[in-house]
Structures
1.
Amino acid sequence: QVQPVESGGGAVQAGDSLTLSCLASWRSFDMYPMAWFRQAPGKERDFVAAISYNGARTTYKDSVKGRFTISRDNSKNTMYLQMNSLKPEDTAVYYCGAAIASMGWHIDQYDYWGQGTPVTVSS
């Protein structure tokens, strides 16, 4: 069963940093493009960043460029999201998704999702 598991969320102050992890429990993790999405209260799940199966390509939401870094370690079946200079508007539940086909910005491109990890940034 393809079921990612997120961890690393928490409550921080504006300007702080957090690193989220997404652990894959299935084999062939290195064949799946992966992404981070987030969902703020009362809003839809929104794209944050994506990474190709081998980590060679990445793409980001404009509002997180220069602050967030997506990466993966296929030897550990894990994807990461390093978040620096956090802002209150980054408050959301963060989800990792796995795609069977290609990486992209659209939620429908991702086939498997974790349960999410909450991030709260206070001013």
Note: The chain has no helices and eleven strands.
2.
Amino acid sequence: QVQLVESGGGLVQAGGSLRLSCAASTRTFSIYGMGWFRQAPGKEREFVAAIARSGGSTYYTDSVKGRFTISRDNAKNTAYLQMNSLKPEDTAVYYCAASSRFVTITKSNYDYWGPGTQVTVSS
């Protein structure tokens, strides 16, 4: 069982930046592909970014490419999502997730989820 806890959310003005962290309670963090998803009110949870076990491969949804960066530190059992040039449409609850697969962008392939952290971008 892997427990994930997100942090770093908050209220920010459009154009601002936030860095989300996802701490994992496992010593085998490096065997999990990690992902970030988000869910806005009234919408389904959607893929944002994913990173492979080694950190060598990353994937992004089109709407965040060039603005968001996913990374991981396997020594610290932590994944990150650096969010720059934030827009009001980025407002959502952000979730990190862990998959036993090398890397995946598919929500159903993730085995463990954090409780989420709220990100609100004001215009």
Note: Residues 99 and 109 are 6 Å apart (CA to CA).
3.
Amino acid sequence: VQLQASGGGLVQAGGSLRLSCAASGRIFSASVIKWFRQAPGKEREFVAGIILGGATGTYYADSVQDRFTISRDNAKNTVYLQMSSLKPEDTAVYYCGAGGNLYYNGVNDVRSWGQGTLVTVSS
């Protein structure tokens, strides 16, 4: 599966931004799409995940719970990450990845990565 992430940009603290991850190729109904982020000098960390297809299920990192919402458009094979109440510490390159277990927040089971999109939150 190929992934294309977009939607990053510069936003003030407290603002909102929506990221998109468009998937193409061999997309299976039970696929999982996850968002990760990587700040300068830090490891890539899990943000949120969602199941594609007929099943339902989402999972969030504690740090973004209640501020970020992950959703999907099955017809468009696109996953969105709506980010609200953004904080400077949310500044990072955001990556979407396909595959793996929804409730596993490591990077090791992600089979395909999209290119990153930079989110910068100014204070």
Note: The CA atoms of residues 8 and 119 lie 5 Å apart.
